[in-house]
Amino acid sequence: MTFAHTYYLFGLGIIAAFILFYVLQRIWKRRAYKKFGDTSVISRLMPDVSETRPLLKFIALMLALSFIILAIAMPQTGSKLKKGKHKGVELMLLLDVSNSMLATDIRPSRLERAKQAISKLIDKLENDKIGLVVFAGKPYTQLPITTDYAAAKLFLSTVSNDIVPEQGTAIGAAIETAVKSFNFQDKTKNKAIIIISDGENHEDDAVEAAKAAAESGVYVNTIGMGLPEGSPIPEYKNNIATGYKQDAEGKTIVTKLDETMLQEIAAAGKGIYVRANNTEVGLNKIMDEIDKMEKKEYDVKVYSDYEDQFQYFIAFALLLMLGEIFIFERRSKWFRKLDIFGERKNEKKK
Q1: Sequence-distant (≥ 6) Cβ neighbours of residue 269 within 8 angstroms
Q2: Could you read off the pLDDT of 198-220 as tens digits, one per residue?
Q3: What are the DSSP calls for 307-335, one per residue?
């Protein structure tokens, strides 16, 4: 179940305020009774006054109000499980989250600009599957390959440079991790990798990994994040810039785009290389090439045509309000004989 207007659910906070007011009112009332004398004597003088019934009336009203608020929020359920066949490609995005991606030669930073471009790409996808691998010293599958674009954007929003514990740039290992995510049960050439990095590979042989991927039917494309002249790497403390990273000799470290490395990876992976700039990242150019690839047909099952369920909540609220009307605060002779609320038994115990 989902709600079409979730902001109305904040109205449930009113229930808590009413409950607090009611409790305070009950405490005040009991203290007032004690000022008149012994409560057991007072209760005998007022045999028709009930303590239970006002509480039941209040509970009924609060439940009715809760159901009305839920009804206004428009509860919905997926009424149909829609099955269909889509044709698309399988795409794995490999995002570099090493410290060098914090450089600001691409505004607002290499990493943030890449995330913005990926988010826009996800918005344009319709039939393709997408997955996300983040890497620095080691790669991690942030999102397995899926058609759930909402989940993709959610996982993307959590990406930062401190999401991986080990710094470095292991592009080759990231390629190998991505290749393992693909389904190779058929020979359809519909699989592609897009590496978004500044190309400063320090850990492994990324070119060989790209070549192996291409041999297995996966095209490897690269996007260079950064400018050739480079930029210092900012350091942050509590999200406030405190300076720039320095080497052991106290000199400011300047990270530069290794364009040659990324071009070699793309060439070995039978893909293309695009350099990002402050105007565009280059994902659209690569996607134009990927769209030319062979498409694979696969089944998709999704809930569609949400059906409103507010009428049930309104019905429950009306029943509770109707019941509240028939709960009288004072006892009547007829109800006393029926003893619906067990009040006579409670009096005998007293």
Answers
A1: 175, 193, 210, 211, 213, 214, 218, 219, 220, 221, 222
A2: 998 767 789 999 999 999 999 99
A3: EE-HHHHHHHHHHHHHHHHTS-SB--HHH
Any idea which fold 90-294 has?
Rossmann fold (3.40.50)
Sketch the domain layout of the chain as residue ranges.
2-77+307-349, 90-294
CA 124 – CA 142 distance, rounded (Å): 20
Distance CA 326, CA 181 (A): 63
Six-digit token pair at 333? Answer: 């002779």
What is the number of other CB atoms lying within 10 angstroms of the CB of residue 305? 9
What is residue 22's three-state secondary structure?
Answer: helix
* 163 SS3 class: coil
Q: What is the pLDDT of residues 323-336, one digit of tens each?
A: 888 877 665 555 55
DSSP per-residue letters across 272-288:
EEEE--SS--SHHHHHH
Query: Which amino acid is present at 286?
Result: I
Q: Please check whether residue 275 is in contact with residue 269, taking contact to mean a CB–CB distance below 8 angstroms.
A: no
pTM score:
0.63
pLDDT band at 65 (very low <50, low <70, confident <90, very high): very high
* % of the chain surpassing 70 pLDDT: 83
Among the listed residues 158, 184, 189, 183, the one whose alpha carbon sits nearest the alpha carbon of residue 95: 158
Q: What is the distance between the alpha carbons of residues 91 and 195, in angstroms, rounded to a whole number? A: 11
User: Residues 285-338: pLDDT tens digits?
Assistant: 999 999 888 887 776 555 555 677 888 899 999 999 888 888 776 655 555 555
Contact (CB, 8 A) for 77 and 63: no
Residue 109 main-chain phi, psi, to 5 deg: -160, 165
Local confidence band at 69 (pLDDT 50, 70, 90 cut-offs): very high
Burial of residue 232 (CB within 10 Å: 0-12, 13-18, 19+) is middle
Looking at the predicted structure, is the pLDDT value of residue 109 above 90? yes
